[in-house]
Specification:
Elements lengths: L7 H28 L4 H9 L4 E3 L22 H15 L4 E3 L1 E2 L7 H10 L3 E2 L2 E3 L22 H21 L3 E4 L4 E2 L7 H16 L7 E5 L9 E2 L4 H11 L3 E6 L9 H10 L3 E6 L16 H17 L7 E4 L8 H20 L3 H9 L3 H13 L3 H10 L6 H8 L1 H8 L11
Parallel strand pairs: 1-2, 2-4, 3-5, 5-6, 6-8, 8-10, 10-11, 11-12
Antiparallel strand pairs: 7-9
The structure holds alpha-D-psicofuranose and manganese (II) ion (2 copies).
Protein name: L-rhamnose catabolism isomerase
Pfam family, one: AP_endonuc_2
GO molecular function, one term: metal ion binding
């Protein structure tokens, strides 16, 4: 049996204390939903199958741009990060895999790491390469680019790193490589906008050709930062062009914080699905830019509309629908375990709201150009309080009725503060 971090008895007594109120609330929701022709039990079964990957880099306290304020007991290596991700999975039950980032999570013994994760009840999701910062042991600098650098030896070094990520990912049981590069220009004239894209295609093709057959290469675009004038893979258009050029295993990944302000992300979802290129998500929320705030903390309605498109996309073509769902957040001032639990629930809530939309009613209103009826169909779904359904789904899967309350009661962080070495204040994340 896996070596789970939180005592089962603690979870059981917590759930027993919540059971009566929870069932009462769920029955109420079930009656409400059945009045709109929706079967709550069926939705609950579907929600139980939602799987989100947690980011190893999100398990530590993030210091993105200015500073990092270390927290006693935060994880400082991959083993400790796995333990914390295991707490999130044990209590929330919808984050069964971890997405590692290399070289941050580098290990000489991937097989041992895989075993360690399995003992904690975890598997591995997409591996992420990092050529957006220099490492102390590397020969050539990425100051002027990595996969798109003007000089072939630097591009080769970046390609090699991606190949090493695939190798380690194979041993961990991953099925995808996520590639985000910061390459671009800070000044007009600094680089050829077309040649840099050509170089990207050339380098990416070499990585693509090393992909195992059952893997995907997820291309992640981002509008700006660290390049502030132009970025080589800046938007879904560039990403789609590249994915189409590379081949069927190349797909586009949407990070919710990587767009121009006010961009209609749900429409991008629909377009990428139409092109058969919807590869995955980095969930987070954003107010101004690539803020990496907690999912659903700023704009939960947008998250709902994104899942509304995802539910439609799956219904249109379930055979090819397999987007990888990952969380990509930077937890600067909260306990990362609490942020991940809260975010995973917000994502599951958006999915549930989308599942309770009456699709026949929506389609009929759209066909009849009954604008208000169409809008009200979405609104009704969004207005349901689905928390009892989420909580019961968790409890039935062995998780906690109120994960954050139980996590606090478990004293996990205080215990780890005694055991773990203190994190340094140096910012380590882009
Ligand atoms: C870049 O902003 C990004 O969203 C990419 O996914 C990176 O891998 C991640 O953040 C961590 O820096
Ligand atoms: Mn991202
Ligand atoms: Mn980002």
């Amino acid at each position: 049996a896996p070596d789970l971090p939180i005592a089962m008895e603690l979870i059981e007594s917590h759930n027993t204390a919540h059971r009566e109120v929870l069932e009462d609330d769920y029955d109420h929701l079930k009656r409400r939903l059945s009045r709109s022709g929706v079967d709550a039990d069926k939705i609950k079964q579907r929600v139980k199958r939602l799987e989100l990957a947690t980011p190893t880099w999100g398990a530590g306290v993030g210091g993105t741009r200015f500073a990092k304020f270390p927290m006693p007991g935060e994880p400082t290596n991959i083993d400790e990060k796995l333990e914390d991700c295991a707490v999130v999975q044990q209590l929330g039950r919808n984050t069964p895999r971890v997405s590692p980032h290399f070289p941050w999570d580098w290990t000489e013994d991937p097989a041992a790491l895989k075993d360690k994760a399995a003992a904690l009840g975890l598997g591995f999701d997409a591996v992420n390469s990092n050529t957006f910062q220099d490492q102390s042991d590397q020969k050539r600098s990425y100051r002027y680019g990595s996969l798109t650098h003007t000089q072939a030896p630097t591009r080769d070094q970046a390609i090699e790193h991606n190949l090493a990520c695939i190798e380690i990912g194979r041993k961990l049981g991953s099925k995808a490589l996520t590639v985000w590069i910061g390459d671009g220009a800070n000044f007009p004239g600094q680089q050829s906008l077309s040649k840099s894209f050509d170089r990207y295609l050339d380098s990416a093709a070499q990585i693509y050709s090393a992909l195992p057959n059952d893997w995907f290469m997820l291309l992640e675009h981002k509008l700006y930062e660290p390049a502030f004038y132009s970025t080589v893979i800046s938007d879904w258009g560039s990403s789609l062009l590249a994915a189409q050029e590379l081949g069927p295993k190349a797909q586009c990944l949407i990070d919710l914080g990587h767009h121009a302000p006010n961009v209609n992300i749900e429409q991008i979802v629909a377009r990428l699905d139409a092109a058969g290129k919807l590869g995955g998500f980095h969930f987070n929320d954003s107010k101004y830019g690539d803020d990496d705030l907690d999912s659903g903390s700023i704009n939960p309605h947008q998250l709902f509309l994104i899942f509304n498109e995802l539910v439609e996309a799956e219904a249109r073509n379930s055979a090819r629908f397999h987007p990888a769902y990952m969380i990509d957040q930077s937890h600067n001032i909260t306990d990362p375990i609490e942020s991940l639990l809260s975010s995973a629930e917000a994502i599951a809530a958006a999915f549930t709201h989308a599942l309770v939309v009456n699709r026949d009613e929506l389609a009929a209103a759209q066909d009849a150009n009954d604008v208000m009826a169409a809008f009200q169909t979405l609104r009704r779904a969004y207005n349901h309080d689905v928390r009892p359904l989420l909580a019961l789904a968790r409890v039935e899967a062995g998780g906690a009725a109120d994960p954050i309350a139980l996590y606090r009661k478990s004293g996990w962080r205080d215990r780890k503060a005694q055991e773990r070495r203190r994190a340094s204040a140096a910012p380590g994340i882009v």
